[in-house]
Design goal:
The chain contains 14 helices and 21 strands. By secondary structure, the chain is an alpha+beta fold. Bound molecules: flavin-adenine dinucleotide (FAD).
Length: about 475
């Protein structure tokens, strides 16, 4: 194999000699692909079609050994290195232009220990891999709401979904991780071993090393839960949101209800006359005893006169895929996000005004519902600091033609600016687009930033892992 030109982590072009490439290829259990070779395009293509980066080389890892080989090569030659898990992150840092891409997406094994109620998960696993393996035993751990999302990136940023009010963030259920550090060494991070690293990877993103295995605590969940959508006409949205905020304030931890504002997709249970018109959707999931769950969702079903109410018994793993068709890969996407402790009248007014001006039929505003167990953890117990937040807004702009880029991005930014005065100032690191590096220090990490920067200096002093919402070494 001939040598290649590849980008250094300072942006220079460096020559990687043929011997280095041959040695790497020979050492790997997985593959090394150059542009045009099998697997190259598959590895560099991620969920957000706005991202079209072309690495100089791709390692598609088959195990921790491959990860160590790739990291050692990158560290030795000071290469620009990107690490890809499920490839879902909006910012597109899972891929780099001109550097080395370490693709973990083929490492998808999940092993459940039903007795100990734990799961060992490889870093390319998607949420559906974990959900389905764990649900075979009636178990689950809190993850996100779109089953094709990668477990790795979601966990490293914090991770929340339908189970979080009852069982905490994904990181609150992380028991240990195997991590390949910038020195190319595999270490264990848990409460006893490298506790500083364990603290940092629970919210600090991919800054500290490459996780090759996650160990999670599992909880009995379902397999049947009470879940589904209640769809209201937009004309009723103000009244519904006012009742929603009262109901969620009293809801048990088992119940989680997100509010989604968008144009109605052509869902089979919606009359054709509603398709394409603005709607407010309450998406509910309630776990635990079925009778108690039905009682808990009843007040939500009693609100207003919905166009459709399809809340009822559902397999948990199936409900986890409910939003997949609306969030399929391949569209252009731009997000803006704020955290809120409450949904004030002023905020509701701005949101409702914005829904009247959605730039495309695929755009939506999500209000994710937190609180409960998430907020009963101290803000400095893990790197994820936002333990007082009850609602996370995601302005999800989504479209297909590059000619709409400017218009759609401008719409999201405008709504973000207008709603800032009601927000905490914090932001979930996993909802940040690539142009928000100025929000990392105070917005994403706040009081936890200085500790993260110290741990970064210990485990990655040269900032090898910089393709992320970056914490600079102290
Ligand atoms: C449609 C959609 C729905 C979502 N819903 C939710 C939700 O309900 N709840 C929620 O919490 N989040 C949600 N997210 C956000 C999600 O948590 C992030 O996008 C997350 O980064 C995805 O992880 P990934 O492995 O797929 O990402 P990738 O893009 O592969 O990785 C993201 C970053 O993580 C780092 N990384 C990845 N793997 C590793 C590893 N093994 N070791 C070290 N660093 C690594 C890298 O820095 C990489 O750039 C959603 C995202 C999308 C696109």
């Amino acid at each position: 194999m001939a040598g290649i030109e590849i980008k250094s982590n300072e942006g220079r072009s460096v020559s990687l000699p043929s011997e280095a490439l041959d040695a790497l290829r020979g050492a790997l259990r997985g593959t090394l692909s150059l542009p045009g070779e099998a697997g190259y395009d598959e590895a560099r293509t991620i969920w957000n079609a706005m991202i079209d980066k072309k690495p100089a080389a791709v390692v598609r890892a088959a195990g921790a050994g491959d990860v160590m080989q790739a990291v050692r090569l990158a560290a030795q030659h000071k290469l620009l290195l990107a690490v890809r898990g499920g490839g879902h992150n909006i910012a597109g840092n899972a891929v780099c232009d001109g550097g080395l891409l370490l693709d973990l997406s083929l490492m998808r094994s999940v092993r459940v220990d039903p007795k100990a109620r734990t799961a060992r998960v490889e870093p390319g696993a998607r949420l559906s891999d974990l959900d389905r393996e764990a649900q075979a035993f009636g178990l689950a751990t809190p993850t996100g709401i779109n089953s094709t999302t990668g477990v790795a990136g979601l966990t490293l940023g914090g991770g929340f979904g339908w189970l979080s009010r009852k069982h905490g963030l994904t990181v609150d259920n992380l028991l240990s991780a195997d991590v390949v550090t910038a020195a190319g060494e595999l270490v264990r991070a848990d409460a006893e071993n490298n506790p500083d690293l364990f603290w940092a990877i629970r919210g600090g993103g991919g800054n500290f090393g490459v996780v090759t295995s996650f160990e999670f605590r599992l909880h009995p969940v379902g397999p049947q839960v009470i879940a589904g959508l209640i769809v209201h006409p937009f004309s009723e949205a103000k009244s519904v949101l006012e009742q929603y905020r009262k109901l969620v304030a009293k809801a048990p931890d088992e119940l989680c209800c997100w509010a989604v504002m968008r144009k109605a997709p052509p869902l089979p249970f919606l009359p054709a006359s509603v398709h394409g018109t603005e709607i407010l959707v309450l998406a509910i999931c309630c776990t635990g005893d079925t009778a108690a769950a039905e009682k808990a969702v009843a007040p939500f079903k009693a609100v207003g006169k919905p166009i459709a109410d399809v809340v009822g018994p559902s397999p948990y793993a199936g409900w986890q895929t409910a939003f997949d068709p609306l969030l399929a890969p391949g569209a252009r996407n731009y997000w803006k996000s704020h955290d809120f402790t409450e949904l004030s009248d002023g905020l509701i007014e701005l949101l409702l005004g914005a829904i009247g001006t959605l730039p495309t039929g695929e755009c939506e505003i999500f209000i994710g519902h937190l609180g409960g167990a998430v907020n009963r953890v101290a803000a400095d117990a893990t790197a994820y600091p936002h333990r007082d937040v009850n609602f996370v807004m995601n302005v999800h702009t989504r479209w297909s033609s590059p000619s709409d880029d400017k218009r759609c991005v401008a719409w999201a930014r405008e709504l973000f600016e207008a709603t800032a005065k009601f927000a905490t100032g914090g932001v979930y690191v996993n909802f940040m687009p690539d142009d928000e590096s100025q929000r990392v220090r105070t917005g994403a990490y706040g009081a936890n930033y200085a500790r993260l920067a110290k741990i970064k200096a210990k485990y990655d002093p040269a900032n090898l892992f910089r393709m992320n919402q970056n914490v600079a070494p102290a």
